Predict the 3D structure of the following.
Amino acid sequence: MNVVRFREGDFVESKEGLIFDVKGVLHPPERVMAFVRYIPSRNGDRERRGMRYRKIYALSARYEFLTTHYPQYLVQDEVLGACVNAVPVHDLVHHYQPQDKTRQLLRNNRVDGVERDAVDFITLLREASSVTVENMGVSGSILVGLHTTQSDIDVIIYGRANGFVLRDTLKQLLRDGEDVKAYGRDFLRRRHEIRQRATPVSVPDYVYHESRKSFQGTFKGRDFFLRYVKDWHEVAERYGDAIYRTMGYTTITGRVLDDAENLFTPCTYPLGDVEVLAGTAAPVTEVASFRGRFCEQAVRGEWIMAQGKLERVSRKRQIHHRLLLGNDPRDYMVTRPEREVRGEEAR
């Protein structure tokens, strides 16, 4: 069986010119799970090699586009138990890898302003830490050559140990506040209106959680976003090792037992003392997400309230339940004081 070696942060291009961003590190045989991101369009605001493209933002819009125009790239996955964007490997004409882009940018003396900022940011991270550029990748619109003057810098950090080093490095750089700056409260309040309108998350809660994350901010005035991805040898699970089935939509509270995986994509939060507040009841043992915005959302010992898709996970005759966040605009996770969650004075 041919194992597809694609991972989070990579992009792929189909024979029709559709450009997809790869999700996760586990893929079915001969297919790569990836969401359509850029599509050829005469009215697009991005151009590459004489062709115009537009970017599709909302997850629902991506599914709608493929359903209407390219239904062959939507499949009912037997392992995930859901309809997913999955492109056959034989339909791909290009595989864009962030580490290749980093090497290309560092060698190239003719870069534009956005690419120069990406190079300078990578250089700063290398000089401020022990992580080499070989373990850093440039992703996003820069990777596929479809960036605009307003594009942000998307960086992938490979390797578990490297991730922890860069997290601490960025915390220090954000504290120094020179070229690297944290998002201000006014900016986060405005972003709340865009990202949290479908959830009950308040402005103060949103600002609090986003303010303490170290993987985002601005570099020389340009937005940056880091994702931390494990190296291949650090990924123990293989496609099909676990079977996932949707059980409903659920709201829970619980206590975070471990935060060792809260930095990486996908991120997971093992839980204890879980209580179901609404929706389908099940003994949930973890929260998980493939969306970077849920990384660093909570730390060990904190109590959380979360809402998302309830899944049953079957693995080697063992069954547990998890809450999966990020596929529905109503999904959220916030920390809460223990006394509020438990309805009593904390002891």
About this structure: Residues 160-176 form the longest helix (17 residues).
